[in-house]
Amino acid sequence: MKNYLNNAINYFIKLESKIAFYPTLMSLGGLFFAFIMYYFESLGISSYLVEHAPLLVVNDTDTARSLLTTFVAGLISIMVFSFSLVMILLNQASSNFSPRVLPGLISNRRHQVILGIYISSLLYSIFTLVAIEPNGNEYQLPGFSVLLAIVFMTVCLGAFIYFIHSISQAIQVNNIIDKIFSTAITRLEVLIDAEEEYKTDFPDTSNWHVLKSFKSGYFQDLSSNNLIDIAKANHCKIEVIPVKGTYILKGAPIVKYNVDLDEDFVKQIEASFLYSKSELIEDNYVLAFKQITEIALKAMSPGINDPGTAINAIDYLTDLFLLRMHKNDRGCYIEDSQPIIKVGTVTFSELLYSVMAALRTYCKHDIIIVAKLFNMLKYLLINNTKYSEHYKEAVLKEVENLYQDTLKNHSNSTDLNRIELMYNEFLTYNSNT
């Protein structure tokens, strides 16, 4: 039962990122509130307010109909315009930056809430309009409900103004990169805080039982609580083979375990793997490196030619790599100071190589970007003194790769001298440390 509950929670978290999630909930709320007002009107709330607070009641049938009809037509127009702006935002972000940033923009909660305000107010106004009787008088007219519709319409106008401001900010590349960066920082800090030092290495898994994938898809997330419960219940150790974000083919090995498990536990392990077609940084911080790198590469394409954006992206990558150096290259879940679950992770050297390989390929012709990459690697090397020696070797390897590529793509003597100077700084620092 607990496993099903964990799966339901994980499914809800994924559903929350959909663009229609909050609008749907708020629409149901608007509909429910309209029926609540039906009930209060049947109790005579409008007739009571006509006698004691007439300013809070719209007691003219024609005025009420005109207002509500105008509200319905105006809200539909606002919704069409707002949805059009969202589509324009997504299209521009996809063409100018990277298609991978779309899930993050779609899951923008502020835009979802604003769209939800529109739809819930629209439904409330429609049902309030239906409640007006053809020959109603001041006692039959839902005057207080009409006043509330005016209040909701005022809120919608304020939300529309905020929406215009928000959408104009969301389309700016600096804000897109900053959101990706902030989300990745939060995820990395959670992983770093959750790490515990242990002295015992994870056992050799070469002869363990192997569980193969029952379907194909992108390995988006893992229900770790389920696996921990299974490992504790069976007194076993589990290794998760694939890395988050990779595409798993049907029949590929995904899990190894060191004891015989019955069919029920095997099915629970399979249910712990969450497959998805979208990518969310909240689940996998590596996607932030990929997305920021792709934004930098797109900025350096001939069609856009925006080296300033590429420089900003490299600054954010530098900060992310520096924080990543605080994290171990191995991922484990600990129980009683012993690792019981080993999780496949992207090592620092692999991550640095994948980012630098792409930047070297598409930016090596620009001496300004090359200098920025040398500065990034220099900063990582200087701040590596208290971290793993493997991290230092990975940085020095990328320095050598960058140096070789840039020499082959520059012929100007000034540029070559600058490249040699930056490279010699690394050699000098390395020899002194």
TrEMBL record:
It comes from the Bacteria. Pfam families: DUF2254. The keyword DNA repair does not apply. The chain crosses the membrane at residues 20-40, 67-90, 111-132, 144-164. The keyword Transmembrane applies. Keywords: Membrane, Transmembrane, Transmembrane helix. This is DUF2254 domain-containing protein. It comes from Hwangdonia seohaensis.
